[in-house]
Amino acid sequence: MKQRIITAVIAAAVFLPIVILGGLPIVLLAYLLASVALYELLKMRNLKIFSIPGIVSLILLWIILLPEGIWPDIALTKIEVAAIAVLLFLSYTVITKNKFTFEDVGFSIIAIVYVGLGFFYFIETREEGIVYIIYSLFMIWATDSGAYFMGRAFGKRKLWPEISPNKTVEGFFGGIVWAVIVSILFVIFTDIDASFLEFGILTIALSIFGQLGDLVESALKRHYNVKDSGNILPGHGGILDRFDSLLFVWPLLNFFYLL
């Protein structure tokens, strides 16, 4: 626990000032976090980042992360660039005589989209205003804390034991309740232009999907038989372990509310 607290304090001391600054620093932070997260994902499947498919994956990730205002004035869209990358991946299966398989192609593409969209909307959410990034962080922290403490106090029914044995139904709903309390405080004390009902409904949806994002990463780790996605954050695991919920929340916050 002591190690977790020390890591959390150091990480917050680095992360929060960059979030406050916004602009180029947050873009660079997103690139760094996304690159490490992609490395962690590829490593689960024993794909090396310093290989032809690994480098193609990294380049495509960086292209996806480019903010809308920075995308160059060229004929190709991001979707078209991604299509070219798919063709390169498929060609590489032939060159390697199926040492790099069709399944590896699918995994690589999904990994890029999963990580890329999440951190792209991290950048876009900050562009909409610091209050939305702070809201997303506090909402997920409240969801995680509520799920943990309510599960410990009242948890009897397992939520999804095949995926995450310690999560309970009571903790799942407890996390939502704590998140809604956070949404009420944000409506009262910030300049968010939304009613209690509107923001409460949004928060319920995001809390549910945030917990689903956590379960998705748990399912992935269970499938590949790894305990943590990495060890870059002592006591916490890897970047994916810390951002799994937010990778679902940031895109949906934009789709449901900010667009």
Automatic annotation (TrEMBL):
Q: TM segments?
A: 6-34, 46-64, 70-93, 105-123, 129-150, 171-190, 196-216
In the UniProt record, does the keyword Ribonucleoprotein occur?
Answer: no
Q: What InterPro entries does the annotation carry?
A: PC_trans
UniProtKB keywords: Cell membrane, Lipid biosynthesis, Lipid metabolism, Membrane, Nucleotidyltransferase, Phospholipid biosynthesis, Phospholipid metabolism, Transferase, Transmembrane, Transmembrane helix
Topology of this chain in the membrane: Multi-pass membrane protein
**The keyword Protein biosynthesis is assigned to this record:** no
Q: Which GO terms describe its biological process?
A: CDP-diacylglycerol biosynthetic process
GO molecular-function terms, A-Z? phosphatidate cytidylyltransferase activity
Query: Pfam families recorded for this chain?
Result: CTP_transf_1
> Where would you say this protein principally sits, based on its record?
membrane
The top EC class is: transferase
Q: Which reaction does it catalyse?
A: a 1,2-diacyl-sn-glycero-3-phosphate + CTP + H(+) = a CDP-1,2-diacyl-sn-glycerol + diphosphate
Give the pathway. Answer: Phospholipid metabolism; CDP-diacylglycerol biosynthesis; CDP-diacylglycerol from sn-glycerol 3-phosphate: step 3/3; Lipid metabolism
Tell me where in or outside the cell this protein is found.
Cell membrane
PROSITE patterns this protein is in? CDS
The catalytic activity of this protein is classed by the Enzyme Commission as 2.7.7.41
| Gene Ontology cellular component annotations, sorted alphabetically | plasma membrane
What does the sequence similarity comment in the record state about its family? Belongs to the CDS family.
Q: What is this protein called?
A: Phosphatidate cytidylyltransferase
- Species: Bacillus yapensis
